[in-house]
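Justification of computing resources. Each target in the renewal requires a structure prediction run like the one illustrated here; the chain below, 367 residues long, is used simply to show the kind of job we budget for.
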Amino acid sequence: MADDLGYGDLGCYGQKVIQTPNIDQLAKEGMRFTSHYSGHTVCRPSRLVLLTGQHSGHTPISQNEQYVFPAGTTTVTTLLKAAGYATGGVGKWALGLPETSGVPSQQGFDFWFGYLDQGNAHNYYPEYLWKNEQKVVLPGNKIGPQKRVSVKRETYSHDLLTREAFQFIKQNANRPFILQAHYTIPHANNEGGRAVNDGMEVPDYGIYADKDWPAPEKGFAAMITRLDRDMGTLVALLKELKLEDNTVIFFTSDNGPHQEGNHKVEFFNSNGALRGYKRDLYEGGIRVPLIVKWPGKIKPDTTTDHISAFWDFLPTACDLAGIKSPQNIDGISYLPTLLGQPQPTHESLFWKYRGKEALREGQWKAV
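Resulting structure tokens:
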């Protein structure tokens, strides 16, 4: 899962400038959803929806307020762990700090590497990350007087997240596993944007270095292409381990594109033809890419207009694992769509955020 990646930021969804060949290949080998929605228009509640299978009208929070998962919460991770799956995650958590009931290890994860605090996840060169509940110091990184802005930058967090994700796959190649990679790319370092007018932190601009673009736009594009590179490496690893045919890959984004860190949504047409962006309940704020690949099961190079949302992931994962979904969820499994079978549909989809609400019923939507 990407962070603040817009509906129009991938080549397979119409992007003309930013290069995403590996993700585009996922779409060619799998199914692309055109009417898939995130759980929310900002990240913490969106992740809560993804994990619990409940939409934001039923979750305890509906904005980016502090939240700690209570002990005993049922999530997609706890359900699959109980079914015998190895459960791993990397990236941004934001649902419980150390020494609380909300840490990943208390919420069904056998392994976690990344950020626990949402604010610290803005910084791509943090002084430390967390491996389970142990602090891991990142060599060569030093935060300066500006909060969450590093003045010494040697170790890029995204690359460590990817390394740990791949290591988890290797270690669990001989048993069922679920890996949730909650990447922070291409979220801006908002504090960096205010401090140095560029919140798009990346080691280099790569193929965009010579473009006549503002620095934040070079960084934004380079971030996405870096993530695309790692998606290609992931597929190669699954092939090497002979796991590709028995592994389902989901690729999506936690909400619509941001306009932060001096990046402008219109520069790359990040929201495609949609109105609005992150923090809006219009389509651009909540309609996101979803690509699913499952060789031999999902017909390659297919597109579906099935209306689905983040709260559908939990029952879909349960169906894939052959276990029952909880009763008190809002999601409907879209496994039938993936397999080309008749699909039950939602009567409506609902979101709320800071006094605003949105409801979609069929081809109509009210905000």
